[in-house]
Amino acid sequence: MAGEYHGRAACAAIGGEMATDDAVLISEPTPGVRLLTLNRPQVRNAMTGEMTAAWGTAIEEVAADRDTRVAVVTGAGSSFCSGADLSWLDQAAGHDVTTDRLRDRMLPFYRTWLRPRSLPFPVIAAINGPVVGAAVCLALSCDLRYAGPGAMFSTPFIYLGTHAGMGATWLLQEAIGVSRAREMLYTGREVFSEEALEWGLIGGVADDVLAHSLKIAEQIAGAAPIATRLTKAGLEQAAHGLEASLQWEALAQPVTMTTADLHEGIEARRHRRSPNFRGL
After folding, report:
1. Please, which of 8, 43, 102, 213 could form a disulfide with 126 given CB 3.0 to 4.6 Å?
2. CATH topology for 13-221?
3. Mean pLDDT throughout 211-215?
4. What per-residue confidence (pLDDT) applies to 150?
5. Is the dihedral of CA 134, 140, 141, 142 positive or negative?
6. pLDDT of residue 24
7. Per-residue b/e over 51-60, b at no fewer than 16 CB within 10 Å?
8. How far apart are CA 149 and CA 273, in angstroms?
9. What is the 3-state secondary structure (H, E, C) of 160-205?
């Protein structure tokens, strides 16, 4: 039933910090759609240790739910996410902080927040406000991105004295091309919704971005789930070129041709009714 997930959240430990039970909320606004809300508006939903732990556990919970067909990610309050919280560096100063130890901490952090990229179903970012630094990479790890009028994107890594992280140097180029990726990373300037749309950083702007994103999610949730999941995998294969895509599609399309959902789709089209796909 829609809404059964409301108020449920995750609790886990990352780097010795515990996630409380409401840092990331999971709800089911419509069947097949899971909404994940970053729920620390008082710190602009920063990627603290607490938030990272809760996010990792919430993602695993949604991924394990076979009824999930689409996920939507948003932020509580007026920000989507303000990026990584680096205050722990001050606390760690003088405690043998080495490059190797920092690398061991960074890689799990990156991979936890980039999990939307590897989920088997589409993920939509409903960007309700500013997106800064590593949070831009979280948005870019989602399959689709929509923004509200007050959304803003910025990657000011080098103006904080640090190199970009979480795949920013690759994800930005994939999304908006080399020249614009360079501009964002070198200048750290703020890119607002309309310009982000022009650049292809987002797919649309809506006054009520969450409602718009949930509407798109509901539409996708109504598609054939096996075909949708294989399409997401196929889009990843496309990065390897045309021949890789042909090889993948020559396997994936016959898989879908053996499903009951294919016959349901044909019958629905023939009788001009909405299909009832069951993932069979």
Report:
1. 213
2. 2-enoyl-CoA Hydratase; Chain A, domain 1 (3.90.226)
3. 98
4. 92
5. positive
6. 97
7. bbbbbbbbbe
8. 36
9. CCCCCCCCHHHHHHHHHCHHHHHHHHHHCCCEEHHHHHHHCCCCEE
